[in-house]
Amino acid sequence: MGVQSFLKTSGFKYLKNLIIGVGASVVLLGALFKLESWEGASEMLILGLSVEAFIFLFLGLIGPEKDYYWEKLYPGLDNYNSRIAPLTSGEAGADAHPLDGEVVERQLGSMVTELQSMSKSLGALKALQEVDFAGAKDQIKAMGGFYKNMTDAMANLSDSLEDTKAYKEQLTALNKNLGSLNSVYGNMLTAMANIGK
Fold it and tell me: Which of 66, 143, 162, 171 sits in a 20 to 30 Å window from 189, CA-based?
């Protein structure tokens, strides 16, 4: 196994994270000892900074890792030592996962559809941004004035209804009085006619 293949193994990745984690804790302890002026503070700080220097040298020598996640689209790519057959058939071997072109096409199609939907949404937001709301304040003020006038008119109508009700009651009383007067007048006419006989 070569150096490059060893650097790609999951065991090396674990070892690298362990070295970085332990080294960072030693640096922090050295700083804590120095800040608190505890015995051995200088030695702890020297040890911590030396470990930190080693970690930076170590990370510089092994180089950065790529952050691609192609194994989700092409199963088997996350295993450095796997034998990958041509992309149309996936990983070679007994536990191979063949790559289905239709699945990939559906996934890409759904991504395109989602991007088109996002584009339409962004277009709608842009159209909303371009709407001129300059006259909206005046329109809201006019609506407020209309509402006040309508409220006043309804109050006046309510008062008018009360006046109309009182007028109707007076007319009813007047009709009763007129009925009584007609009856009295009719009786007077009858009495006068009887006097002349």
Answer: 171
